[in-house]
Inverse folding.
């Protein structure tokens, strides 16, 4: 009887582990906040922000993050090179995006605190999205972390700027470990691996995130 009980407990544990793993892949939940009294009032917005405007800001930010967690981005990066008088260039293009009004994207929790609206946003993935994200999360695809900044005194969209800069710096951090000479250009794809962190410090939005990276082409200066 004791042996059968142990087998039963092991089976239940395996079932629960598989269930939790499945839920983690079927649902993406992220924390997103929005200032209700931003330091700069933007045109055509209420001040303080109405609940409707704050929710719109939050859902737009969530769409950027979650689209980046499912589909990822194409990128082209030209590093700064003082000796060659080359200015840094970085282009980040979403491969695909969650559409506005997607029924699978929901705000499931809200809290007002310190003149901010804090939320949990959840997205239920379709089967093809689960497969895509699962393939990206393979251990064969390298990860890197980066930190980015956006100007708090410009607009709310600077939060997105901070995420984009964090992705660029994650690419730089990965390449530092792989390339001895500075390249002319790097082309590839990036996927946000997990929900980013973002906070305010010294007049800036500061974000930290972890990305999966596929480097598709590295162009050295020797070919020019």
């Amino acid at each position: 009887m004791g042996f059968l009980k142990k087998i039963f407990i092991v089976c239940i544990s395996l079932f629960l582990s598989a269930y939790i793993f499945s839920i983690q892949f079927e649902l993406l939940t992220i924390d997103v906040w929005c200032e209700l009294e931003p330091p700069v009032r933007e045109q055509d917005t209420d001040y303080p922000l109405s609940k409707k405007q704050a929710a719109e800001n939050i859902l737009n930010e969530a769409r950027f993050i979650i689209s980046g967690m499912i589909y990822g981005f194409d990128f082209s990066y030209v590093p700064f090179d003082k000796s060659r008088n080359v200015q840094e260039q970085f282009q980040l293009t979403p491969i695909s995006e969650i559409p506005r009004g997607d029924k699978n994207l929901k705000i499931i929790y809200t809290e007002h605190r310190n003149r901010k609206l804090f939320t949990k946003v959840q997205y239920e993935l379709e089967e093809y999205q689960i497969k895509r994200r699962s393939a990206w999360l393979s251990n064969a695809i390298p990860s890197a972390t980066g930190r980015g900044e956006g100007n708090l005194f410009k607009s709310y969209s600077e939060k997105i700027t901070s995420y984009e800069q964090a992705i660029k710096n994650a690419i730089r951090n990965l390449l530092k470990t792989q390339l001895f000479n500075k390249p002319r250009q790097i082309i590839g794809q990036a996927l946000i691996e997990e929900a980013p962190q973002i906070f305010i410090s010294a007049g800036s939005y500061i974000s930290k995130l972890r990305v999966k990276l596929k480097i598709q082409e590295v162009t050295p200066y020797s070919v020019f």
Summary: The two ends are 76 Å apart (CA to CA). The helical segments are 2-26, 51-70, 127-136, 158-176.
